[in-house]
Amino acid sequence: MQQVTHFPGGRETRILLTSVFGPYAQDDAYGSRAINPMELYHNQVTRVQGGFSLRMFHRSFGLMMIQANIDAPCTLLDFPSQDRFMEEIQENDYDVIGIGAIIPNMGKVKRMCELIRQHRPGARIVVGGHIASKGDLLQTIDADDIVRGDGIRWFRRFLGEDEDAAVRHPAVLSGFGARVMGVGLGQRPGGTAAILIPSVGCPVGCNFCSTSALFGGKGHFMNFFETGDELFAVMSSIAEELKTHSFFVLDENFLLHKKRALRLLELMEAHQKSWALYVFSSARVLESYTIDQLVGLGISWVWMGLEGENSDYKKLKGVDTHALVDRLHSHGIRVLGSSIIGLDDHSPANIDAVINHAVSHDTVFHQFMLYMPNPGTPLYESHRREGTLLSEDEYPAADAHGQHRFSYRHKNFRNGEEEHVLLKAFRRDFEINGPSLARLIDVTLKGWRRHQNHAEHRVRDRFSREVFPLRSTYAGAIWAMRKWYRNNGRLNGKMDVLLKAIYAEFGWKTRMVAPLIGRYVYRSLKKEEARLAGGWTYEPVCTRENNAAAMALESRKPSGVKVPVKKVTWVSGSPVPAMAKSA
Ligand code: SF4
């Protein structure tokens, strides 16, 4: 546990938590990068899929968790512009300003610290998130405290609140502003998954994994909700509050906590919960469950590291990843495979085989990332010892996002050729396997065919909900894709087969409606492609939210703030355990 000095104001302390300022999807002096927009899928998964790319924003969930778990008045400002941030700190008398950031945001955090010293000189500056792993951070930025790891416990101790009090989980949707093929996906009630954060960290401790390292590395993790019962209670409350049936489980290796997951399954069965879970899981952990257990738990989507053929990671030992992906897909479980470019044994001579191996999995989505030694990881330490890291003059922090260049001298790749290789991987996956949306629709149909008559009503309900858009909008999307690929025999044929399968399954109504929707989607796609070709980018809207204490405080103020204030809700869970050590 880091040394934390109590803040004298305690529960009267006025706190601002903020993400770094935008705009994000541009190249600028503060470290924004056009190739690294604030869109998780577009910046590292569907990067080259043009109008087919899944565009979506995600809130700063770490800051939301902290806000939900302190009693002092706390305001959260997400995605401000620099001007909006300045206005916020000029107009409000904050005692503490906390900034959450990743390492590429270094220039922005530096600038925000300068602005705070200038406009709110009495405020204490606290910086956390992945940026805290950078050991020499205080040589670059003018902050008072750097918080590495668990921000909830740190803030509670800092404010003199009960560190061991139950964790409250914010009830919040996992994404916003989603669009694909030029069509906004809206936010109909129940249509977007809620975010769920049962644990942080991962005890597997792969040498490159920043998230594992941030929460203690190999052998360590932290549960916010220790048991299946606690998790079930929290999920029930969130589902009720947001009227949702699905959860995006932001836990590095959710299924690793098997006792908790299987108890959750029992409770879902006993209470007839038809939830869908989108999870991260390592391959061997997935294989430790039966397919009935995965289907019963509602595992509908899994983000899984494939890393690379012959990579020496324990989590992949003895796993036939092709067979695993096929098996999951055949049960309607959509796989996002993640592969690394630039492992030590990769070279220009073998990289095509590496890419072909990854692409041959035909996962629904495929993330490719450069093999990067981020501060705090064992990989970073080994490069530091060997003296192979590039200096900050050679390699700005803003480029350390894994989609551009190596931050070290790779023994086989030189002169920035890695970005070319990375793009080649993305492009090959797109050319061979087609748009991810089509793959998602294909796997959804497989799941429906297999489980539409499942013995459990709640499981049938889930597949029925998931397949519902295939009767109309998704059928229209495939119709539009078939037309889009009319000069590409292979992908046109693939879309044709899929569309016919959808028609065969859902009959004449779908056959009638698909061309009508398809024409609209096709026109939207053409417009989107033209917009993107003209340099169009997307930015998240700024949100400002108060907890109850901050709301009470502001209601007594004579003049209001300019951005509408939203109240946040959260639900109670368990006491916070100390950092746990895995078996
Ligand atoms: S299994 Fe995944 S989450 Fe766990 S340490 Fe390895 S890369 Fe990180």
What do you see in this structure?
By secondary structure, the chain is α/β, with parallel strands linked by helices. Helices cover 39% and strands 16% of the residues. The chain contains 19 helices and 21 strands. The chain has helices at residues 40-44, 61-68, 82-91, 106-119, 151-158, 210-214, 228-242, 258-270, 283-287, 291-296, 321-330, 351-359, 378-386, 417-433, 436-451, 457-467, 473-484, 489-533, 548-555; strands spanning 15-19, 55-57, 74-78, 96-100, 124-128, 145-147, 166-170, 176-180, 183-184, 194-196, 199-200, 220-223, 246-249, 276-280, 299-307, 334-341, 365-370, 543-546, 566-567, 570-575, 580-581. A seven-stranded mixed beta sheet has the order 6-5-4-1-3-18-19, sandwiched between helices. Strand 4, helix 4 and strand 5 (124-128) form a beta-alpha-beta unit. The radius of gyration is 24 Å and the shape is globular. Residues 560-570 and 572-583 have low confidence and may be disordered. The structure holds iron/sulfur cluster (SF4). The site of iron/sulfur cluster (SF4) has 12 residues, from helix 6.
